[in-house]
Amino acid sequence: MELNVYGVALVPVIVGLSELLKKSGLPQKYTPVASLILGLIFGLIYVAPGEPKKGVLIGIVLGLSAVGLFSGAKNSVVEGFMNRNQK
Q1: Confidence class of residue 40 from pLDDT cuts 50, 70 and 90?
Q2: Domain count, the chain
Q3: Residue range of the domain that includes 18
Q4: For a Cys-Cys bond, which of 34, 43, 50, 67 suits 58, CB 3.0-4.6 Å?
């Protein structure tokens, strides 16, 4: 499996699109599912067109990476804010 720079650059795009969906009314609990679906779409259509197995695998990696990136950033900001208020 080969994931080039363009594929990795899709992770923040997926995070942004998921946030856009959330702001347009998607319940927050469905955001990870939306990220996974977007990852699959990008994996199948953009990263590996014509190779469904590879597209699905890369799409899952992209979607789950987007969920982890968002979660990690959110938790870091919250922890930083909480630590600042405790001092």
Answers
A1: very high
A2: 1
A3: 5-86
A4: 43
